[in-house]
Amino acid sequence: MLVFQPFGWRVRHCAGLPAFHCESCCMSSHDDHQKGLLITAIGGLALTVDIPLIRLADGGAWTILLLRTGTTFLAAMIIWSIWRALSRNAPQLIPGWSGLVVAICYGLTSITFITAVFHTSTANLVFILAFNTVFAALLSWIFLKEKPRLVTIVAMLVMILGVLVIVGGSVGTGHLFGDFMALCSAFFIAVAITISRASGKDMGFTALVGVLLPLALAAFMVTGEGFQVNAPWWIIFNGAVIMPISFFCLANGPKYISGPEVAMFYLLETVLAPVWVWMIFAETPTRNSLIGGAILIVTLIAHSLWQLHDGRKRRGDLAVHHPA
Description:
The structure is a single chain. By secondary structure, the chain is an all-alpha fold. It has one domain (43-300). It is built from 13 helices and 2 strands, in the order ββααααααααααααα. It has a two-stranded antiparallel ribbon with strand order 1-2. The longest helix has 35 residues, at 287-321. The radius of gyration is 20 Å and the shape is globular. The model is unreliable at 1-6 and 8-21 (pLDDT under 50).
């Protein structure tokens, strides 16, 4: 089978299976693929309303962070408790020291993400967040010794150009700090992904438990500045329902479908979140944001399609060399 790595593929052989199992494996694989597409589509679509719900809550950054992380953590604990009561195979909340570092990274991501929401445009934020794939590829290259192919290096350079166009357009507009926070969010996500892959452990609930760090910080800040939110039900719904659904579905997608396919569904937020915000708040992206965002999206789609084609070619070659 083919297992996705950031901007690349590696082959994992199904050892120990006799040849006559191939047909049943293919049927099972087809069913799993359909399941994966449905699960990941649900997660990707749910994620697109995250930023609009944050904006609709109309509150202070720390109050929003407190409600969002608090309800997310509560929902995660309820789900995990039910899972553990019904099955002995419930994953660990924080699997070892690597899990703790991953949880901290996701916690830092929550802080920088909310900060970015309040200090830059939605379009800038989601476009820059897509840059996490470049960070992940670089970290894998440096620490996991996974050298990317030439086409991947070219894609990374083009995406860097796209981010520079977006950030360049923010100079003098007051969005530069928010863009930097978005870039920090992309970096922390990439670090979490790299550590998760290197450890090989199940980190399904780790991202949700990681909200304890921003929850504690937000609680401390709110005690000083006061509780500021005009429509709390929007952010409570976001944290209790939307975030657990999107995190769970997107985290489980790679079990059934390829990485490039998962990446396509992550792009739903990049494309649709600015549309929802434009429809609700009449926030129009700047020209630089649209140009840079278009560069990022087109590059990601083109690279994902290349990976899908390359993956099918490798599977075909493997079938030729290992006939049933």
